[in-house]
Structures are given as C-alpha cells and as structure tokens.
Amino acid sequence: MKPTPFSVFRCPYCASRRGVIAIDCEAIQALADSPLRSTGPGQKAVIPSHDIDVSAGSLGQPFVVFGACDRPLKASKQTLCPHLIGLLIDIDVFHATQRGEIGEPAASLCASWDHPWLLKQDPDEELRPFLWTEVGEEPGDTFTPRNRWYLAPLRQVISQRRSRSQIVVSGTAIVAIEPVAFLREVRREFNREKARYAASS
Ligand SMILES: [Zn+2]
Question: What residues are paired with 149 via a beta bridge?
C-alpha cells in the first residue's frame, strides 16, 4: 500500500483538492525514528526540532503536503490554495512506553506560512498578531471583517499502530475568498485601532 498523506485541513472555498493541507505520517515517523534520536545507555534522548519554512519555493520539504489528500504528491506537483492567508502547524510524535503511557515527544516539527502580501506589507510583524488574536466573530473580538474568511483550528491525533506512536497535530489556518482585499480591510482596522490607542494614551 502506498503511503497516504493525512488531511488536516480543507479550504471551504476550493472546489478541488487544491485546498487540502495534509501531513505525511511516514516522513514524520521516519524523523522520529531517525538516528538523531539514538541514545546510548544513560544518555538523554535527543529531540530533533525542525522549523519548516513553507514560503514560496520551498514546498519541497516532505512533512507538510499541499494540494493532495489521496496520494503522495511530488513537490513540483504541489500547489498552495489561493485563499490561504496564514498557517501555523505544530506536529509532535509521541512513542508509547511499555505500559502504554505517553511521555515526552520523540520529535517535534513546526511549520508556518504567511501570505506574500503580509511578508511585504507587514515587515515589522505588527499586523500579524492583530490578525491572529483580535480578528474574529466571537463577542469580545475586536474586529469582524466584511470580506468572507474562515479560521480553522487544526487538531488531529493520529495513532500509528505499527510503531506504537501517536502523531499530534495542532495549529491554525486562515483562508479568505479574496485574501488581499481581506488583508487590506484588516490593515485599515488595525491602523484605526492604533490611532485610537495613541489618542487615548
Ligand atoms: Zn482555497
């Protein structure tokens, strides 16, 4: 059986599988089992931690797969969903002990992606915290944008029976029908908020 990427997010605005973000459990498991982790008697386990920068041109990493859920895709065949604004994804691999307990992660991965508009227009990274924490639809959120958008918490626990381990995925994905219009709207509100704060202090 061929390895299957495990889907962790599907964009509601993409009709095709283009909007799928998946993880490759085999590649992640291989990382957790890699010789980096080998420990001698009395030595502490080494936890390899990988930061994946999935910005344009670096889709080639094997762990996070864009645009497929039913079969592995080569990096050259992968496409980012055109609605994606931001992605934060944490992946931890836990090995079960003899007694079935879950201890410290055997491997951790961290991947992030920001829309090119943000990289260019938000060099000081002041808009991004506003976007991640103040924008929403709950009472108490500072701002509810008019442009249609969707924020999804990512949460999956994948049991790997063969290797007696668990892959735990957490994170957040933000998509919008018109990413740049949405981001401009958020920017205008952020600027208003900043001006209000400056006037009151
Ligand atoms: Zn999409």
Answer: 176
